[in-house]
Write a structure and sequence with these properties.
single chain, binds adenosine-5'-diphosphate, binds 2-acetamido-2-deoxy-1-O-phosphono-alpha-D-glucopyranose, binds magnesium ion, 2 domains, Aminoglycoside 3'-phosphotransferase, Chain: A, domain 2, 370 residues, alpha+beta, 10 strands, Phosphorylase Kinase, domain 1
Length: 370
């Protein structure tokens, strides 16, 4: 967290009808500045998430908030129409600003939003059980199903070409050529690894261009800590971090679940030599996802296992690019953080390659179309 903001003053910009008590930084996201703030509401303690949108990453915060507002309103209306218990706990909801907008601006021009804190649930950087993997994947599938019924115009692309992996490789080449932080000479092995995987980068984009894989609304950032699991039952109660919910491929969502739920070490473990794929976790993910994502076509089903490798490769390329650019995108806690993350992701790509035949067998066994 670079600088602590005055959350009391920010909260006053929102129609909270409660008295601010205190706030502290919250969570381990790499992009936004997130605070958990506690208020007194007629004698009751209530908590809210107060979040500054990273406008260097999201260059059009108004369009972004238009998307989030539409998607969350649709989610709430659909949950209520289905008589879902605790509908307000199963989707983010935007608290309006005192001007009636889903966001507010501070004096420095930052964009802020407030969501009710989802109590009794949490997101995990590392899962503990296969049941959690099943529940998380099921919740993301449910989210995609719900997003599919959103009416109205196409959602804005909050980050254009977000999962265009060939473009991510081009951006890496530009970072190597620019060598802005003077680091390229030290990462020759990582650069060679990325270049050797160029053919993998275009596999899904080619299938999308050919119309074989359809465009659908996807979450596009389904790392495991972006779904909150119920503390008591492990049920996936609420999908969060909706900044990249926009048209894409649902394969990117499944791929990011594989990237974050199945490795045996954390994303930034600097010593990933023994990293491997937890195949029991992978099977739980496939089962959970297929239990809710009942709309997948044959090409999507056939690429589920590959999608994990693709997204791990893509995120590794992005960490390497940011390391070469001098750490301008992802939050870091140490000088080599992005390089450690890149090495970890590339080591996991190798592990996924070794396990791919077994992963393909698992998908084939569970594939409802075969
Ligand atoms: P980032 O884009 O930086 O990852 P997130 O929207 O994912 O930001 O928020 C960061 C963290 O804050 C999440 O991983 C989660 O732990 C927590 N969080 C966000 N929104 C809520 C919420 N409404 N209720 C409870 N926790 C939340
Ligand atoms: C970022 O926002 P967060 O921490 O959930 C990033 C994802 C990466 C992820 C890598 C908007 O996710 O794309 O996969 O870090 N989000 C954005 O951990 O770039
Ligand atoms: Mg997040």
């Amino acid at each position: 967290m670079p600088d602590l903001h005055d959350i009391r003053a920010i909260s006053a910009l929102f129609d909270l009808r409660a008295d601010f008590l205190h706030a502290h930084p919250h969570g381990s996201g790499h992009i936004n500045d997130t605070y958990c703030a506690t208020f007194d509401q007629a004698g009751q303690r209530v908590r809210h998430v107060v979040q500054r949108i990273n406008h260097h990453v999201f260059k059009e915060p108004l369009k972004l908030m238009e998307n989030v507002d539409r998607v969350t309103r649709h989610a709430l209306a659909t949950l209520k129409a289905g008589d879902s218990p605790e509908a307000h706990r199963r989707t983010l909801t935007c608290i309006p600003s005192i001007d009636g907008q889903p966001y507010a601006r501070d004096a420095e021009g930052n964009y802020w939003r407030v969501y009710p804190f989802i109590e009794g649930a949490r997101g995990y950087d590392e899962l503990e059980t296969n049941e959690q993997a099943f529940q998380a994947a099921r919740a993301f599938g449910d989210f995609q199903k719900l997003a599919a019924t959103l009416g109205g115009p196409r959602l804005h692309e909050t980050i254009p070409h977000f999962h265009d992996t060939p473009k991510r490789l081009e951006a890496l080449e530009a970072a190597i050529a620019g060598d802005r932080a003077g680091r390229a000479a030290g990462v020759a092995a990582e650069i060679a690894f990325a270049r050797a995987h160029a053919a993998d980068c275009s596999r899904i984009t080619d299938l999308i261009a050919a119309g074989i894989i359809p465009e659908r609304i996807a979450h596009n950032d389904t790392k495991l800590n972006n779904v909150l699991l119920d503390d008591a039952t492990a049920e996936g109660v609420c999908v969060i971090d909706l900044d990249t919910t926009m048209p894409g491929s649902v394969l990117y969502d499944f791929g990011d679940m594989v990237r974050t739920a199945t490795p045996t070490s954390r994303e930034d473990d600097p010593d990933p030599a023994n990293i491997s794929v937890r195949l029991d976790r992978f099977e739980a993910l496939v089962k959970g996802y297929l239990s809710s994502a009942t709309f997948l076509n044959a090409a999507e089903l056939e690429n589920l296992a590959f999608s994990g490798k693709l997204i791990t490769l893509e995120v590794g390329i992005r960490f390497l690019t940011d390391y070469l650019d001098g750490d301008v995108y992802f939050k870091i806690k140490r000088r080599t953080h992005n390089l450690d993350r890149c090495r970890n992701q590339f080591a996991f790509v190798k592990a996924l390659e070794a396990s791919m035949p077994t992963m393909e067998e698992i998908v084939a066994r569970l594939n409802p179309r075969s």
